[in-house]
Structures are given as structure tokens and as C-alpha cells.
Amino acid sequence: MSGLVYTSSASGKAAGETKPAPVIRLERIHKIYRMGDIEVHALRSVSLEISRGEFVAIMGPSGSGKSTMMNIIGCLDRPTKGQYFLEGVDVSTVDKAGLADIRNKHVGFVFQSFNLVPRTSALENVELPLIYAGVGSAERLRRARAALGEVGLSDRERNMPNQLSGGQQQRVALARALVNNPSLILADEPTGALDTRTSVEVMGIFQRLNRERNLTVVVVTHEPDIAQYADRIIQFRDGRIHRDTPVQSRKDAKEVLQQQPVEEDEDDL
Question: What is the DSSP letter of 154?
Fold first, then answer.
């Protein structure tokens, strides 16, 4: 995978420009699950590089290996064979405690189901990773409020999850993913539970963070329209990378939103 050059004008990468050092590098990754006497090969010799500042969409049918790949990239699981380097560090053989530390410091997660804590305010939900990291209360409050501001929810910090729309809940989840200043955001079907307009709004936030912060973003999605907001699409099939291509006509969420009708009761932004 090394040596590939992408030319998509939407991503700001000029033709012939050398790719920066990879944030993610996988070398011949295998993942085998054993179910009694049966071996299930979820990943088969996958090699992949994702550079700093790339916005990548991972696609594939159910059982293709994309979710297993996401778990390995996010240090939620370990490969059976092969090596995984995150920020140049081989994390393939790190123990569970070490993986938890890496996740907390380097990776921000966003899930389809939001995973917010009920009866806990938006601000307190965003503070949770900082509590686990041992950050003091004053600094936690400052950083959590800044993260909510990044996603346009400064006026909702005291709201409980059941007082927020689906789009607002997903933005709280995104703020929580950002609060530790990770080098990588992993989003698993982040628009799967959202309506069309709210999905575009969320993808707009991902695009802005990718552009302004040079934040590496990896989104797992089954929706081709959502994948078009990325600047590279990796398609999995039968545990292998079937296709890895740049997006030729990348969608800009701001432009798409201008073409979307606004509902009269829309209060998401």
C-alpha cells in the first residue's frame, strides 16, 4: 500500500504529492475466530496504510470483515497474526490494560447507537473519558465545554440524552470522542440512526474537523452516499480488501445542506 498517491482535488492533495507518514499501518493481518472445532477467518492477510489527515470510508457487506477491521484499528481486539502499528508503535501484542490506555489517549469512538449514559447531562457524558484519564475537575469542565462548542451544542450542556434529538445525541457522542484530542476518530455507522438532513450535518462536522484539525477520520458505513463524503473508500469482501480507491467527486456537506429542505420544527443546529 505504501507509495500510493491520491489526486482528489476535494481532499486538497495535489497530483504527485508524497503521502505523509501513516497513522495506521497494518501488515498481513489475520483474524481467526474459533467456534468449537470450526475456524472462521474474519480477516485474511490484510495490509493497509492510512495517513495522517485522511478521511477514509470502509464499506462491505455483512460478514466481509469491515467491523473486525474497525475493532483491530480501534484496539478493541487483537489480530491472530500480523502486525498493527498505530502512530509508529506496534500494538499487535499489547496487553488489555495497554490497549485501554492507547484507546483513551489516541482514539475517539463514535457509534450508531450513541452510547450515551442516561440521566447524565451532555456535559457529564463528554467529561467521561477525562475522568478515566485522571484529568482534574476544572480542566475537565474547560475541555468538555470546548468540545461541545466544536459540535455546536454549547447551549445544550445541561440537557439529558432523552431531551436531545438523535442528531444532537450523535454530536454529544462526537464531542466525547474529541475531548481527549485523539489522533484518530473511528465512527461505526454514525448516520445509521439519523434522517437524511441530520446525516449530512454530522458528516459536515467530520469534514470540518478533518480539514481544520487535520484529524484522521475512519468511517464504517453501508451507505454509498455517506462514503462519498470521504476522500478514499476501502471496500472489503470475504475478509480481504477488494478495492481501495480515491473518491473522484467528493461531496461537500455544506453544499449538500444548501440543497436540503429545512423542516419547520428543525432545531438540530
Answer: G
75: left (phi over 0), alpha (psi -120 to 50) or beta: left
Question: Which pTM was predicted?
Answer: 0.86
Neighbours of 104 (CB within 10 A): 17
Residue 269 falls inside a structural domain: no
Contact of 172 with 148, CB cutoff 8 Å: yes
Please name the amino acid found at residue 217.
V
253: containing domain: 9-15+28-257
Closest by Cα among 53, 57, 59 to 11: 53
Dist. CA 82–CA 86, nearest whole Å: 13
Q: Contact 197/189 with Cβ under 8 angstroms?
A: no
Is 1 among the domain residues? no
> Could you report the per-residue pLDDT of 120-140, keeping only the tens digit for each?
999 999 999 999 888 999 999
Q: Are 5 and 232 in contact (CB under 8 A)?
A: no
Query: What is the number of domains present in the chain?
Result: 1
